[in-house]
Amino acid sequence: MKLTLLLTLLPLPLLAADKPNIVLIYADDLGYGDISCNGATAAQTPNIDRIAKEGINFNSGYATSATCTPSRFSLLTGKYAWRQQGTGVLPGDAALIIDPAQPTLPGMLKKAGYRTGVVGKWHLGLGGKGGVNWNEKITPSPNEIGFDFSHIMAATGDRVPCVYLEDGLVRNLDPADPISVSYKTAFEGLPDGVKDRASLKLDWSHGHNMAVVNGIGRIGYMKGGTKALWNDEEMADHLAGQALRFIRESKEKDTPFFLYFALHDIHVPRVPNPRFTGKTAMGPRGDAIVQADWQVGEVLRLLDELKLAENTLLIFSSDNGPVIDDGYKDEAAGKLGTHKPAGPWSGGKYSILEGGTRVPFLVRWPARVKPAKSSSAIVNQIDFAKSLATLTGGDPNFPDSQDILPALLGESETGREFNIGHAGQLAIRIENWKYIPAGPKGKQPERLFNLAKDPGETDNLAETFPTKITALNAKLAEIRGGE
Ligand code: NG6
Ligand code: CA
Questions:
Q1: Whose CA is nearest to atom 4 of ligand 1?
Q2: CA of 29 to the centre of ligand 2 (A)
């Protein structure tokens, strides 16, 4: 009798049967203003909007950094990427930058009883420091840092090798046609983006002129693996298919699951499937937004079909802010019209201004989260680790990560007290004050903005409020120093 009473008093999520599934859909380079629930009209994103309608839309939701690798590192480790050397944008042949011995979000969830899977863009390196042999099982891979299943591209769509890997093995690799990769030297006799520029299907505007794969210039050179090469136009279908496969298989195994579905869209090269061509008037960048939304719709549809939606905590976000021309001539600038990819914020990918890291951030969990809410709580992707540990009874040993579960579930308007921005340099926000120290290399004076009055960060108040700067700087120094 007493035991029953005790059990009913325990918070429900700690009972294994009640553990929600967790699906994190992570878009690439998608800006705050690129989705119609955040004001876009030139691209319609009904599936992403549905998450907002059935859940919470955060207007102060942040990626930790303004580029891919450090944001993903922080997301998966709960540790600021800038605490570790070598966590900038990685080449496709980099070694894994997450130490298999360090705590990770998937590893924590796995120990808490979840089946864990990653599908899509990885970009955190593979293998050890000695270099990767693409023709054997690569280790360490996502499978050594907490994922039971991985089906990934090594780096990005614009970097070689242009192949998918499942659980550390290149898929469809013909042993008679082994893969070699180099980020330094071209392979003799193969086309490259400079000498064969005229024949490219998609021309480059900067970089992206090394190997030519599927008529598109890439960063880095590769040879071999012809049967294993991905098809850019079918990438969204392929990745969605693998995400759905993981959900189905988890349902069959009757285990709670964590899926990290890292879309390639809307990163360059933007070559959406022809069925999305012309869905917007913005060219491939706009059409890739619609394709990203379609992939979200596939996940939502399957969760409904398998009757998993009610007890699945679904998070949708992006790894950094938007970029228009990121190295290919894909008409993104010319066809942008009045569309504002970063919404009300200034800057975008690579920028320390809000547009660099303030991204789409939506949470839905029908069993627990009230629908159609918007929240101004400050929330950061680095906090998923500790917050989800609290939710699932996992080990919360993630010092930089904060437990903001009540804010994430819409039960509180209080998220984190401060937010750290990262784009080469650091910035700090507390309430509506944002401070960007001078730099980099003295090129910019120190800047102080009041985001409530000046979301576009145009009015530098540094000289008017020196005491604010002292306080913000002290907090920033404390966080930098602490671990
Ligand atoms: C840059 C690439 C850009 C993109 C970015 C990484 C050039 C000229 N630019 O170096 O196209 O790949 O790295 O993007 O090559 S991220 O979203 O993965 O961080
Ligand atoms: Ca990115």
A1: 326
A2: 4
pLDDT tens for each residue of 365-395 = 999 999 999 999 999 999 999 999 999 999 9
Q: Is 403 in the pocket of ligand 1 (CB under 6 A)?
A: no
219 and 275 both lie in a single domain: yes
- My answer on whether 56 and 147 are in the same domain is yes
CATH code at 147? 3.40.720.10
- My answer on whether 58 and 202 are in the same domain is yes
Name the pTM for this structure: 0.96
- Is 185 part of any domain? yes
Question: From the CA of 319, which ligand is nearest?
Answer: 2
- Residue-wise pLDDT for 314-346, tens only, equals 999 999 999 999 999 999 999 999 999 999 999
Six-digit token string for 294: 């379609």
From 390, 416, 442, the end of a domain falls on: 416
Q: How many other β-carbons are positioned within 10 Å of the β-carbon of residue 448?
A: 20
Per DSSP (E only), the strands in 18-177 are 21-27, 56-58, 61-62, 115-121, 149-153, 164-166, 169-170
| Whole-number Å distance between alpha carbons of 373 and 12 | 23
